[in-house]
Every structure is written in structure tokens, then in C-alpha cells.
Design goal:
Bound molecules: adenosine-5'-triphosphate, magnesium ion
Number of strands: 19
Mean pLDDT: 92
Number of helices: 33
Helix content: 40-55%
CATH topology of the largest domain: Rossmann fold
Strand content: 5-15%
Strand order of the largest sheet: 10-9-8-17-14-11-13-12
Shape: globular
Radius of gyration: 27 Å
Number of domains: 5
CATH architecture of the largest domain: 3-Layer(aba) Sandwich
CATH superfamily of the largest domain: P-loop containing nucleotide triphosphate hydrolases
Low-confidence stretches: 728-739
Length: 739
């Protein structure tokens, strides 16, 4: 303790060091942390640290940030996923608030420069959000003195990797004095990554909690360290492995390759897990199940609530955010015994899993139509969720083998393997289009192809694939941007056109804007479905997949409403993609026509979380296209898309837009008010509180809060609470009330 106090005092002074230790509650520094400090991270040195999972990398970021804060600087912390950003926000706030520093989390809305963020000392964002803030020339950006890139190995992931690569390249060239701290899982080409960033590579091979990795086959786990552990054969590999963990008093985290598999695996272990619950746990879980059902009443949530009662849950992106956080919290509190997750849960999170079970090393790739192997990196990330310092003294990660031969294969290719080299993904044209446009539109120093190329010469792509390859890629994309009118050229000089500038700010793929513009030119008037089909066709949207049983219905619809849609393509593969866009457009149409959420879940075979993310993206694309239409001189399309984006945001018909502008009023309550004669804000102003309270779904306290809101915005504390609770509900669970 004295040792760590000495080290921290040296950098922060004794008073701050003591306070810091008070909140951190650590006894000594981990070797990872010592190594980072030794390499100069607290003396302003840029480093990229590659260290095993759970080795305490976050604290290094905390200390480095504090170093900057005490001398008047600011820190930006980048995370690849919103969920991880949220977890770090909690962690950072716990440390920095008592020291008097302000931490902000900013992950939403891509069309703003968030000037408010300037007031904070530590800003936590996703890579994508930081990229968009840079495009908006957020004024506070230049006061950032430390940038932390967590999970920096995502540079090697398709699409999202390229965003991070360009973001770091731009930060380096626009703000050369910023200190960079890259935190990474173990990677093979650390030196290459570090050298690209002008940082010192630091490699540590140490983990605070022992992680035993092994392969299960036929009644035994064969560990890499040579140990063998018998597992009583009862109901098959997965259930036996889970039972074995629970009997030892631990919790199990299972990774299944798909959502469907996660649900069925969770079902399979539920009977076995039930026996391990105490009276108290039964009660807590029953209450949690009720909370899940209260917030959503679709079939996904029902299935989840049922399983939760037996101490088991599944976890995937189709869950509503309420359900997801209930599951995570209960698992952390050790009330839930087993969580079966898709690999989206794997990056960076801290969960108490004594044993991680990975059921399959393959994953079905929907786009390619076949199974592909997961990477070693991904395996290590999943495995690394076991044995986290706060929770367990030792962890185990087990891959399930199906044959004796597979045991050897898995041992060699995953357990004993070292993670792959990280390769730049900047070759992707989709990312390049957007990055080139953004550079020309926002960087004053970029005036011609030469200066553009010089930025790209500083990318990892250029270092790995030769500067010529980078130049050729940039040239090709620049030509496209010139031909589509987002860039214009006079002599050697290149600039962004007005539309091009707006597209860069909106953070949409220029291809999305181009498709919008072509659509606006070809159509004077069109139906809502035509717009929705357009949205679903853009590369910024995801689409829902088409099942066999959907095809007849979709084709019938093509017969009856074909004139609202572009004609279907002949090509078989193209046709499949056309149908999935159509299905997505229809889902959105149901949503804005106020079809109930549980009905949509059933009809389209999606989870409530999918509806949420689809509508969020669609709202953003609709909004962006309305902005593009305005700048490009299509006022009518602009107005229509603007209304459409609001309807998508709230899931309502146009007549309810005024009512849903109130806090605490979502689609269901608004419909209820409307049907009871309160059709506008004016109607609400003139109504009595008593009349409002009588409307189903409103009640006395919300009625009072609404009145207060209408009378001048500043509600009293209690009313604000009621509204906040109601708006949480209106987004998440207002759908409960039938209409
Ligand atoms: N010096 C320390 N003493 C005790 N506990 C520590 C110390 N440093 C970190 N921890 C704890 O270790 C756990 C794991 O740390 P952290 O989340 O930083 O891991 P990580 O290295 O980022 O792993 P991953 O690669 O999985 O993201 C946290 O619960 C943290 O509170
Ligand atoms: Mg981490």
C-alpha cells in the first residue's frame, strides 16, 4: 500500500494520491500498470500497450487521464462499442467525481458538435461518434491533450476498423501534440501498430487471475497446462459443463454462435440450473422476470422472463436495452447462474464467470452463406471473460469438441495459438468514400489530391500495403466523389460542394446521399412506402432477413403495391436482397402506423432490440436525406422526409407528432389522449388536470407533470421524476397498453 502511495504521490502529490487510493481500493499496482508507468505513460509518452484480458489496462487510462487533468488538460476515451463506453463511463465517474472532475458520455446523435462537451474533463465516446465530432469541428477538440483508444486491435475489424484507423491518423496529423494511449489485447504485430502511431510498444504477458484454457471432449476437459478434469456425463457436453461449474459454486457464461442457438442452449440448461437457486434467489428472479414482462410483452421477452425464473438467461442484440441491463446486473450480482450470449458480449466487459464455455468455433456468415472460423483474437476475447479479478480466484475457458480429432485441432488452432496479425481494413471503398469526402470538407489544409494523399500516406494501410496502393485507392474514390457532385475541381484545387459538406457532417455514406439524390431527381411525388424502401436500400441501413414463409406474402404485396416500388431485379441473389429491403420497409411502415411492438416482433421474427436499432438508424437516415434534399433544392422531398423521420422516431402517425413532443408521452399514451379528444398541445393546455388523469395510461401524477410541463417547462423535482420515469417507459414499455 505504501509503495503504491509513493508511486502515485510522485505524479499527483500525496493528497490527491490518497484520495485516489480511497476510491480505487487497490493494494498495489499490477505488473501491467507498473510496466506502463515505467515506459513513461505518466510522463507524456505515447504508448500502445498489449496485455492479456483482465490485466488492469483501464486503470492505466485512468491514471494517464488524471495526469492531464491535474495540469489543466482534457482526456478523450474511445471505445469500440456503446455498451463498453457505458461501462467505462460508470467506472470513470466513480474515480473522477470525488476528485472534482467531470466525466461525460456521448454516443448518440451524429449531427452535432456537442459544444456542451467542452465543459467536461474526460469525454467518453465511441469511435464513430468521435469521428463525427471531428467532422463537425467540435471547438473543444483542440483542448484535448490525451486520447485513449481502448481495444485498439479493432483496427483490424472490417468497416469499424477503418473508422478507427482514420480517426487516429487524423488526430495524429491535426493535433500532433496529443498523447496517445492505445490499449490492446495481445496482438502479433504490436510493433507495427505502435510505429504507425509514433508510439512506444509495450508488451506485458501477465494476468492477475489464472485463466486455464482447455478443450472438452467426452467427459473430460483437457487443459493446455496438461491437467485433465473429469466432468460427470449426464445430459451432454453443454449441460454437463454448466452443471459442473454450478456444483463448484461458480457461474457460467456460455457463448453460442447465433441468436437462435443462444436461446435454445439457454433452454437446454435451464432445468439443471434451477436446482441451484436459494429461496431468496427464486424471489429475486421472479421479480426480475416480472420487470422484464412489464417492460415488453413480445415473445422474445416472454421467453427470456420464463428462463430467468430458472436462473438462466440468453443475451443478444435482439433484446431490449431494459432486458439486457437486467440480465447483466443479475449476473453481476450472482443471482443469475448462467448467461448464454452471442459473441457481441465479449469485448472488454467485466462479469463474474468462473467458467466460459464456447460451444462452437464456427459461425455462420449470412452474407457469404457458409460457416467460417472465428479468429483466434475473438476466441481469446471470449475466453478472457472468465476469471475477472473482482469476482473469481481462477477462471476456466472451455471449447467444446465434437470429435476426438477436433480436440487436437482446437487445442492447436485456438488454445495454444497466438492472435493474428492486425491488418488495415482501409481498402474498403465504402469507408474511403466517406473519409476522403470528410477530409476535403473539414480539413483546411487539404486543398488538392496531393495533400489528400499525404494524409493517407500516414495510415496503417499505407504502411502495410505500400503508399502506391493507398494513392490508387484515394484516386479512385476521389473520381467517384467528383462525378457524383460531392466534390468539385478547379485546376488542381479540390473542394467539397455545399451538398458534399453537408453529407460529410451528417456522417452518412456518400452513397446513401447519392441514392437519395437520384431518387429525388426521378420522382416528384411518392408514397411513404417508396421512401421507406429507399431508406432500406441505403448502405447505412441494416435489413431484416427473409424467411421462406415470408416469400409468398412479400410477393403478394408486390402484386398489389408494386407501383410504389422499383421493379424487382431478375438476378436471384439481387432478388433476395430486394425482398429483404421490402420486408424492412414494411416493418417500418407498420411501426409508423402504430402497430403494436409485440405484433411486429411476431410478424417479422425480430427482437425488440432490433426494432429499436432499426428505427434509430432509419430515423437518422431519413433525417439526413431530408437535409441533403434541402441543400440540393428538393424542398418537398425534404419536408416529407423530415416528417417521416419524426414519425419513425416515435412510431406514430403524423397526427400524433404534436403530442409526442411532450416528455413522458410516447406512442401509446399519445394515441390514448388523441382518441379521448386531446388532439393537440392546445387541447392539453385547456384541459383540466382531472380530465387528463382519467385518460387510460395517464393517471393523476402524470397528468400533473404534463400540466407543469405545459406551463413553462420548469417542473418541480417530483414532477420531473414522474416525467423521467414515464419517458423511460414511453420509449421502452409503453407498448404494454393495448389500443
Ligand atoms: N491494481 C489493481 N488491484 C486490484 N484490482 C485491479 C487492479 N487494477 C485493476 N483491477 C481490477 O481488474 C479488473 C480488470 O481490469 P480491466 O477491466 O482494466 O481489464 P482489461 O485489462 O481492460 O481487460 P480486457 O482486455 O478484458 O478489457 C477490474 O475489475 C479492475 O477493477
Ligand atoms: Mg479493457
Amino acid at each position: 500500500m505504501t509503495e503504491v502511495l509513493d508511486v502515485l504521490s510522485k505524479y499527483f502529490g500525496e493528497e490527491v494520491a490518497r484520495k485516489l487510493l480511497d476510491v480505487l481500493k487497490i493494494e498495489k499496482l499490477y505488473p501491467t500498470q507498473e510496466a506502463a508507468i515505467k515506459s513513461g505513460v505518466l510522463d507524456g509518452e505515447s504508448i500502445v500497450l498489449a496485455a492479456p484480458t483482465a490485466s488492469g489496462k483501464t486503470l492505466i487510462a485512468v491514471l494517464a487521464a488524471l495526469r492531464h487533468l491535474v495540469s489543466g488538460g482534457k482526456a478523450l476515451y474511445l471505445a469500440p462499442l456503446r455498451a463498453l463506453a457505458a461501462e467505462k463511463y460508470q467506472e470513470f465517474r466513480e474515480v473522477f467525481s470525488p476528485l472534482g472532475y467531470k466525466v461525460a458520455l456521448s454516443t448518440g446523435d451524429y449531427d452535432s458538435s456537442d459544444p456542451e462537451l467542452g465543459k467536461y474533463d474526460v469525454i467518453i465516446t465511441t469511435n464513430e461518434k468521435a469521428d463525427s465530432l471531428l467532422r463537425h469541428k467540435a471547438p473543444w477538440f483542440s483542448s484535448i491533450s490525451l486520447v485513449v483508444a481502448d481495444e485498439i486491435h479493432v483496427v483490424g475489424l472490417e468497416k469499424r476498423g477503418a473508422v478507427l484507423e482514420m480517426l487516429l491518423t487524423r488526430i495524429r496529423s491535426s493535433f500532433p501534440n496529443v498523447q496517445l494511449l492505445g490499449l490492446s489485447a495481445t496482438v502479433r504485430n504490436l510493433e507495427e501498430i505502435a510505429s504507425w502511431l509514433g508510439a512506444k510498444p509495450v508488451r506485458v504477458d501477465w494476468r492477475p487471475v489464472k485463466l486455464r484454457e482447455g478443450v472438452y471432449y467426452d467427459g473430460a476437459i483437457y487443459f493446455h497446462d496438461g491437467g485433465v478434469k473429469e466432468v460427470e456425463p449426464r445430459e451432454g457436453a453443454l449441460v454437463d459443463l454448466v452443471l459442473d461449474t454450478l456444483e463448484e459454486g461458480g457461474q457460467a457464461l456460455v457463448f453460442s454462435p447465433t441468436r437462435r442457438a443462444a436461446v435454445s442452449d439457454a433452454r437446454r440448461v435451464s432445468a439443471a440450473a434451477r436446482k441451484f437457486l436459494s429461496e431468496r434467489e427464486h424471489r429475486l428472479l421472479a421479480a426480475a422476470a416480472a420487470r422484464i414482462l412489464q417492460s415488453h410483452s413480445d415473445k422474445v421477452s416472454e421467453e427470456l422472463a420464463n428462463l430467468v425464473k430458472s436462473g438462466v438467461a440468453f443475451h443478444h442484440a435482439g433484446l431490449s436495452s431494459t432486458s439486457r441491463s437486467i440480465v447483466e446486473q443479475l449476473f453481476r450480482e450472482r443471482v443469475l447462474k448462467v448467461v448464454v450470449a452471442t459473441p457481441t458480449l465479449s469485448a472488454g466487459v467485466n462479469l463474474p464467470a468462473k467458467r466460459v464455455v464456447i460451444t462452437d468455433y464456427r459461425r455462420y456468415n449470412v452474407e457469404l452463406g457458409y460457416h467460417e472460423r472465428i479468429s483466434v483474437m475473438e476466441y481469446k476475447q471470449m475466453a478472457g471473460r472468465a476469471g475477472r479479478p473482482k469476482y473469481d480466484l481462477e477462471g476456466e475457458a472451455v471449447l467444446i469438441a465434437r470429435t476426438a480429432r477436433e480436440v487436437e485441432f482446437l487445442m492447436k488452432e485456438y488454445v495454444a495459438a497466438s492472435p493474428e496479425r492486425i491488418f488495415s481494413q482501409l481498402g474498403s471503398e465504402q469507408v474511403l468514400r466517406s473519409q476522403v469526402l470528410s477530409l476535403v470538407a473539414t480539413e483546411d489544409s487539404i486543398k488538392d489530391e496531393k495533400s489528400l494523399k499525404s494524409v493517407f500516406s500516414r495510415t496503417l494501410f499505407s504502411a502495410q500495403f505500400s503508399p502506391l496502393a493507398a494513392e490508387a485507392a484515394v484516386e479512385k474514390v476521389t473520381r467517384w466523389l467528383l462525378s457524383t457532385g460531392f466534390l468539385e475541381r478547379t485546376g488542381a484545387r479540390i473542394r467539397a460542394t455545399a451538398v458534399g459538406k453537408r453529407v460529410a457532417e451528417l456522417y452518412i455514406d456518400p452513397m446513401t446521399a447519392h441514392m437519395g439524390l437520384e431518387f429525388f431527381k426521378s420522382k416528384k411525388r411518392c408514397s411513404t412506402l417508396s421512401y421507406l424502401f429507399l431508406l432500406a436500400s441505403t448502405p447505412d441501413m441494416t435489413t431484416v432477413s427473409v424467411r421462406k414463409e415470408d416469400i409468398d406474402k412479400l410477393e403478394e404485396l408486390l402484386q398489389s403495391r408494386g407501383e410504389e416500388l422499383p421493379s424487382p431485379p431478375e438476378d436471384e441473389v439481387e432478388y433476395e436482397w430486394y425482398l429483404s429491403r421490402l420486408k424492412t420497409a414494411l416493418l417500418l411502415e407498420d411501426w409508423i402506423n402504430e402497430v403494436r411492438e409485440d405484433v411486429i416482433v411476431e410478424r417479422y421474427d425480430v427482437g425488440p432490440g432490433d426494432i429499436y436499432s432499426l428505427t434509430q438508424t432509419a430515423e437518422w437516415v431519413a433525417y439526413s436525406l431530408s437535409q441533403v434534399a434541402e441543400v440540393a433544392g428538393f424542398p418537398e422531398h425534404s419536408a416529407n422526409l423530415s416528417i417521416l423521420s419524426k414519425r419513425i422516431k416515435h412510431g406514430v402517425r403524423e397526427e400524433l407528432l404534436e403530442l409526442v413532443s411532450l416528455r413522458g408521452i410516447g406512442r401509446v399514451r399519445a394515441r390514448s389522449l388523441f382518441n379521448h379528444g386531446f388532439k393537440s398541445l392546445y387541447d392539453l393546455v385547456t384541459a383540466s388536470e382531472r380530465d387528463l388523469a382519467r385518460v387510460p395510461g395517464i393517471g393523476p401524477s402524470l397528468a400533473r407533470a404534463i400540466k407543469a410541463q405545459l406551463q413553462g417547462g420548469a417542473e418541480a423535482g417530483e414532477e420531473r421524476e414522474v416525467l423521467e420515469e414515464a419517458s423511460g417507459q414511453s420509449q421502452l414499455d409503453e407498448y404494454l397498453y393495448p389500443h
